[in-house]
Amino acid sequence: MLQQTLLSQLASFYDFKKANQIAALSQTKPFIRAWMALDLSQPIAQSVGANSMDFAAQYQQDGDYLKYNAKSNLAEHCDKRFASKADLKLITVQKNIWIEFHMLHENDLSIKKECDKLYADAKRVSALRQTLSQDDVLLLVGLWGSFNNADMHHFQPLDNNSQCAYVIDSSLSGSTQIARLSQMKKTSDKRFLLAAF
Q1: CA 75, chain centre distance (Å)
Q2: Which among 23, 80, 99, 128 is least buried, having the fewest CB atoms inside 10 angstroms?
C-alpha cells in the first residue's frame, strides 16, 4: 500500500504542470529518467519524511552489496563494483526507500523492446523487494500520452491479481486523481501520469 500512500502524499507536494511540459517534448526522452529522479526527489523525500537521500545508490543489505541476476530472477550478494543501483535512495528513521524510475511515451507501447525494458525493471524491483524485505523498493513509471482500453494489456504484468500498481493522473484532482493502473482514466487527452509499482 506504500505506492498508493506515496502518490497521495506526492499529489499535495508536487506541481505536475512542469512534468506535463517536459514529458510532452519528444527530444527530452534520453534525459527524462534522470530529470524525474532529480525533480521528484525533494517532493518524495518530503512526503516520506526522509532524513537524507542518495542518487545512483548501490543496493545493500546489512553492508553486503546486491546484484540482480536476470537468469535466476533473484537478488544475490556481490562485490561492490557489480552491485545494482537504484536511481534514488531515501533514508528514513524506520527504513530505506529505494526508487527506480522509468519513462514511457504512448507510442512506446507498440514497441516490444520498450515494453520489455519496463517488464525487466519490474522483475528487478520485485526481486530486490523480496530480498530487502525490511525496506521499500519501488518502481516509479512516468507515462506520457493518451491511453485507451486497448493499451491496458501492456500494464498487466505490473497490475494484476497478485500485485498492484497505482497511478496519479495529472489531469484530475481530488479522490479520482489516484487509481489502480489498470483502471486509469481512458481518454484522448494527452497528459503526464506517474505510476508506482
Answers
A1: 19
A2: 80
